[in-house]
């Protein structure tokens, strides 16, 4: 039997009650697809509020070592307070394992109320750079000696005036990191036969960070995928305005423009390649278009490690009530199955989710759109497991 060892963190808030059924559903799908030939071997690790309760760090040393050893994990949502000293565990794990790509597929699901007309036009995948940019959290408080020193340095060396009461954050964007995420997005688009890739940036204003992210993305597209892409600029002149079969349209959009276009013309966008902060915003905005971010899963992957999760957070108001929707973390799990080359199992899960919605066996967040009687979190997991295993 071929086993993939996967760590799991149950998480905070609704985390435990969505993670447990997710594991059962994923196991059922692997069993249904591969019988006894393949399996996931799950190992539970502590992190988040539970770990802190036992008097330690929210990411205990033992958990970090196991992560470094086993490299793959399914993660329930973890709480991160706004402000204060506590750094996001998600960001710490991403940096520790160099999970440089955050991948979020967003596709409309029938029956869900979307805020836009004809929502079946929404079928996008966001590739967000995960380790660079302002998101790295290199910053100093307005009243810290470090910020004072930096303000002094900038004034002395570059004659740059910054207000004496300003906090300072640093926005690094490197060639290596920009190119490797571009490469991953391009490879994905080619493998999955997607129709276009759009680089999202604010390069008109941030010329040495965001504009370079765009330039470096074009460099990779031209030098490594030149025979697979068509640039927007040459579409009319060389190809009569139509992308030839088997080729992928490669273009870019300034961030604010892309924000409005994914809403007004979602059918024109497919794979979106974005730096960290832009990617964070646009992935939730596109997620909202399908009507419910509780339905979305995400993957954080590097060259030899991956963390798979729901897109949403700990939804504290629903914690312990058996009402949260586990679909997000289940879909995080299907991205993991895809990553392990278990596409058949992943397809079984997606089919079961569609069937459960079709049969109106859904949690309250979906039931309120459809106008049916909701079932609980655990019961929804049981419905999916039942469909997958044919019971
Ligand atoms: P949130 O936990 O995603 O919840 C926001 C709202 O989304 C909920 O009130 C609920 O909306 C809906 N929702 C989210 N997940 C749902 C589910 N599984 N089933 C049904 N409805 C769901 O966002 P937040 O309140 O801003 O954040 C809470 C905490 O989560 C924060 O500490 C934040 O840092 C953390 N967080 C963690 C992650 C992560 O670990 N990856 C990601 C995001 C946020 P309705 O009220 O409309 O029903």
Structure report:
- The protein has 391 residues and is α/β, with parallel strands linked by helices.
- Helices cover 44% and strands 17% of the residues.
- The strands form 2 sheets. Strands 2-1-3-13-12-4-5-11-8-10-9 form an 11-stranded mixed beta sheet, with helices on both faces. Strands 6-7 form a two-stranded antiparallel sheet.
- β1, α1 and β2 form a beta-alpha-beta unit.
- α1 packs across α11.
- The two termini are 24 Å apart.
- The mean pLDDT is 94.
- The site of NADP nicotinamide-adenine-dinucleotide phosphate (NAP) has 18 residues, from loops.
Instruction: Please mark out the parts with pLDDT under 50 across 5 or more consecutive residues, or reply none.
Output: none
Based on DSSP secondary structure assignment, what is the total number of beta strands? 13
- Please bin the fraction of helical residues: 40-55%
Number of contiguous helices = 14
- Placed side by side, the strands forming the largest sheet appear as 2-1-3-13-12-4-5-11-8-10-9
What sort of overall outline do the alpha carbons produce when their principal axes are compared?
globular
Q: In angstroms, what is the radius of gyration?
A: 22 Å
Q: What small molecules accompany the polymer chains?
A: NADP nicotinamide-adenine-dinucleotide phosphate
CA distance, first residue to last residue: 24 Å
Mean of residue pLDDT values: 94
SSE order = EHEHHEHEEEHEHEHEHEHEHEEHHHH
The profile of the biggest β sheet is:
11 strands, mixed
Structural class: alpha/beta
Strand percentage lies at 15-25%
């Amino acid at each position: 039997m071929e086993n993939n060892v996967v760590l799991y963190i149950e998480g905070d808030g609704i985390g435990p009650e969505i993670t447990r059924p997710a594991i059962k559903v994923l196991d059922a799908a692997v069993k249904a697809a591969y019988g006894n030939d393949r399996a996931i071997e799950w190992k539970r690790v502590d992190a988040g509020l539970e770990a802190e309760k036992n008097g330690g760090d929210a990411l205990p040393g033992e958990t970090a070592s196991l992560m470094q050893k086993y490299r793959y994990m399914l993660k329930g949502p973890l709480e991160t307070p706004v402000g204060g000293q506590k750094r996001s565990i998600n960001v710490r794990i991403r940096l520790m394992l160099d999970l440089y790509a955050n991948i979020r597929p967003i596709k409309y699901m029938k029956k869900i109320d979307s805020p836009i007309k004809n929502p079946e036009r929404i079928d996008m995948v966001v590739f967000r750079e995960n380790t660079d940019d302002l998101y790295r959290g290199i910053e100093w408080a307005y009243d810290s000696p470090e910020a004072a020193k930096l303000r002094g340095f900038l004034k002395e060396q570059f004659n740059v005036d910054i207000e004496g009461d300003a906090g300072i954050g640093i926005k690094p964007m490197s060639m290596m990191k920009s190119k490797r995420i571009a490469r991953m997005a391009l490879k994905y688009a080619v493998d999955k036969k997607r129709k276009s890739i759009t680089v999202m940036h604010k390069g008109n204003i941030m010329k040495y960070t965001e504009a370079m992210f765009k330039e470096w993305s074009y460099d990779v597209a031209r030098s490594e995928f030149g025979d697979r892409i068509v640039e927007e600029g040459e579409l009319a002149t060389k190809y009569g305005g139509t992308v030839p079969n088997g080729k992928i349209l490669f273009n870019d959009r300034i961030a604010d423009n892309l924000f409005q276009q994914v809403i007004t013309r979602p059918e024109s966008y497919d794979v979106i390649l974005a730096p960290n902060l832009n990617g964070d915003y646009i992935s939730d905005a596109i997620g909202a278009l399908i009507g419910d971010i509780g339905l979305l899963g995400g993957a954080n992957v590097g060259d030899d490690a991956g963390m798979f999760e729901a897109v949403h957070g700990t939804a504290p108001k629903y914690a312990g009530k058996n009402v949260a929707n586990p679909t997000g973390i289940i879909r995080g799990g299907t991205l993991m199955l895809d990553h392990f080359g278990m596409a058949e199992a992943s397809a079984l899960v997606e089919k079961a989710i569609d069937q459960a919605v079709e049969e109106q066996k859904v949690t309250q967040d979906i039931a309120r759109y459809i106008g049916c009687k909701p079932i609980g979190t655990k019961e929804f997991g049981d419905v999916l497991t039942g469909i997958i295993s044919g019971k």
